Structures are given as structure tokens and as C-alpha cells.
């Protein structure tokens, strides 16, 4: 389960053909850019959850 949580953000970042578009825009930024920027805090949350599930040693 722990490694699955770490794999999800990686797969989202590698799925470029699915989010390689301009629309919808957010504050003038194309979707491609703001999705990547939004993926950073999402990845942090997944890494935090994986560390709590795995129990830091």
C-alpha cells in the first residue's frame, strides 16, 4: 500500500498526453503548467501519507 501511494503521483506526472492542452486556463496559465504546479503539493501529501503508513524508522 505504501509503495502504491508513492507510485500514483509519479504516474500522474508521466501521463503527459492526457494533460497536454492549453484549455482550461487558470489565472492566464495554460492547463499544462498549472496542472504540473498543482501536482507538487499533491505529491507532498502522498509522500507524507506513505511515510505515516509505513512508519518512519
Low-confidence stretches: none
How many DSSP E strands? 0
Run of helices and strands: HHH
Q: Tell me the strand percentage band.
A: under 5%
- The end-to-end distance, rounded to whole angstroms, is 17 Å
The general outline is: elongated
C-alpha-based Rg, rounded? 14 Å
Helical residues, percent: over 70%
Largest sheet: none
Query: How many alpha or pi helices?
Result: 3
* Average of per-residue pLDDT values: 90
Category from helices, strands and their pairing: mainly alpha
Number of spatially distinct domains:
1
Could you walk me through the main structural features you see in this protein, from its secondary elements to its overall organization?
The protein is about 70% helix and about 0% strand. The two termini are about 15 Å apart. Helix 1 runs antiparallel to helix 3. With about 55 residues, it is mostly helical. The longest helix is centred in the C-terminal third of the chain and has 24 residues. The chain is built from three helices and no strands.
List the helices and strands and how they pair.
Elements: H1 2-14, H2 16-19, H3 31-54
Explain briefly what this protein structure is.
This protein is mainly α and 57 residues long.
